[in-house]
Amino acid sequence: MKIKPSLSKGTRDFLPSEVAKRNYIFDTIKSVFRKYGFEQIETPAIEKLETLTGKYGEEGDKLLFKILNSGDYLAEVRNQKSAISELEPQEITPLIAEKGLRYDLTVPLARYVVQHQDQLAFPFKRFHIGPVWRADRPQKGRYQEFYQCDADVIGSSSLLNEVELLKIYAEVFEKLRIANCELRINNRKLLEGLAEYHGLKDHFESVITGIDKLDKITKEQLLESYVKLGMPSNSIDSLKNLIEDITLKSDLVLTDILDGKKKTTIGQVGAKELNFVYESFIKNYSGQVKITKDYTLARGLNYYTGLIVEVKINGFAIGSLGGGGRYDNLTEIFGGQNMSGVGISFGIERIYDMMEELNLFPEHIAEGVKVLLVPRDSQTEEYTFRQVQTLRDAGIPAEIFLGNVKKQKQFAYAEQKGISYIVEIGANEMESGNFRLRHVKERQEVGSGFTLSELLQKLS
RNA sequence: GUGGCUGUAGCUCAGUUGGUUAGAGUAGUGGUUUGUGGUACCACUGGUCGUGGGUUCGAGCCCCAUCAGCCACCCCA
Fold it and tell me: Which of A189, A199, A213, A257 is most deeply packed, by most CB within 10 A?
């Protein structure tokens, strides 16, 4: 029976040319990570469900891919007192699935650090690149399987880590030649202080998720959504004031928090941290990438406790190309001692889309093999095969074309694979031991009658 | 989880008010031609028209349902 070839929703195949471009991005990021002393780790795609469940909120649990147990996966269900039809789905899940696909690289990191703490050198600086899976509805630029690319420092609360990570951002985007890049930073403690001042301490989480949307919706729409959520009206007024504060786009708020009437202990700490990171980055960086303080930046994830950062591209309608921040309590849930961590993440799917659209990939991104040797007929095939070995032994990446003898096919093959030269070998070449060299893209003969050493010279 | 759009060959798409045996380009396979310059020529393969039902003498086309994919929300990268 024939099966129609198709992909599972939200997943993609990558053509050789696409992989080459993706690797170009990965390699660029990796080289910068390594330069700053980050080491690569790997963790399994599969984690125990107990590791993953409950770390991403109720919504997140729904988006986890669960793996059905092997063998008689209904055994546990049969052991239950109630009939299967009486059980809620979330009650059945742990009975039939004990594993799941990882949802991000951060929770596996927390598990990893606690589990291997005796073997790690702290502060632990690691990077991790790999696919993660989420069962949400795909749409443009959003997939069920996508790559994350993270760098984190665990076990050091120095703010210079923040500065270093910002420098990594700047360096990577410079290397990728992405212009108009802006690092926006803010501090969760500062926001917390403001919330406290406005009497919104108890609603901090919904305040955070709300103001994170301010770049998409208006202040009025935001306040409306709070009303709908059932927030008391006196809190709404406070929220209004808070939103006024942060959308001022001026450092007036900052001075207010530091020394003025909006002073709170936690707010002061946040403001000082923010200033330090900002000033220090400017002092220690001289490139193109801009940095700005953005008091409306909140970031949705609720584990952030200090600096938060997002990468924006000015003049290009795309979401952020990366984000990160400091988190203080990540290892706690796995029984580790309270280690502070700070990390950044590159949104490589978006970086790819953007570079593709703006034509930012170098032309010869993956130099394929240099030369394609084509035997003219079956008589010269074996001789050609030996010549390929000779070229390879001399360090020239070379390939023999073993297929359809149509010339169009040969050239099409070379062209598609980005092979620069073709050497066709017929009876004449076999007898004389000479080579005739043609350039594929220019559609021109370079010359004929070359000796082996002449050929090597032309190709290297 | 909510809404919108789209399903015809591996891919891109035609397909008349509903009327014989569903077409083209491209890709694939085979061949013709050329001791050397590639976009030439010929043939072939490939489709349960997403699936199931309904209307009709007759459905790729009309109706209903369903599934899938995409897009936009929620959320996120």
Answer: A257
